[in-house]
Write a structure and sequence with these properties.
heterodimer, A: mainly beta, six-stranded mixed β-sheet, five-stranded antiparallel β-sheet, 55% strand, globular, B: mainly beta, seven-stranded mixed β-sheet, four-stranded antiparallel β-sheet, 11 strands, 51% strand
Amino acid sequence: ILNVEQSPQSLHVQEGDSTNFTCSFPSSNFYALHWYRWETAKSPEALFVMTLNGDEKKKGRISATLNTKEGYSYLYIKGSQPEDSATYLCASLSGSARQLTFGSGTQLTVLP
Amino acid sequence: EAQVTQNPRYLITVTGKKLTVTCSQNMNHEYMSWYRQDPGLGLRQIYYSMNVEVTDKGDVPEGYKVSRKEKRNFPLILESPSPNQTSLYFCASSSTVAGEQYFGPGTRLTVT
């Protein structure tokens, strides 16, 4: 079982603050890294799928970077809004596996 | 509308009474999987399927069965449910194993 770790476990920020969190994963035999946004009482929704070292992806105020050599990815939120409050999950897929392994998530609360 | 459906959404049952949670997707996806979500543990994969008649164990398969007779359906079967299977269950599908996962709405199961 791959060990995918996310930090911090939870985070409270004020509206307008920028924030970031980390996903670390085993770098050997890396294939893909996913980020999902999971709002309370809803289902996880995909934000990004990243495969290349140095990849940077952006969707509105949210962006992500990937370092496959050292096994980490950062998710950034610029100018946080209350509607950004959610749990952010990352998941890693290794080349030899056929299943995603999820981290336990970072729970973000944006205070108005 | 592209979607993954699950039924039932909520279920309370007793130990030992066989049950099936259905999952269906209308996106012609080849890859489908079942996850359970427990507090502090994140999403853990129970079973996955690469295509029709091809299923494989995930990280926590004990006490569960699945079948994939048609591409669109991937039911989860609990032959003899036990209280430690009380959890929130998600079905997901994707076009490939590395592609973004589309999650169903979730099934909250309580086994007494």
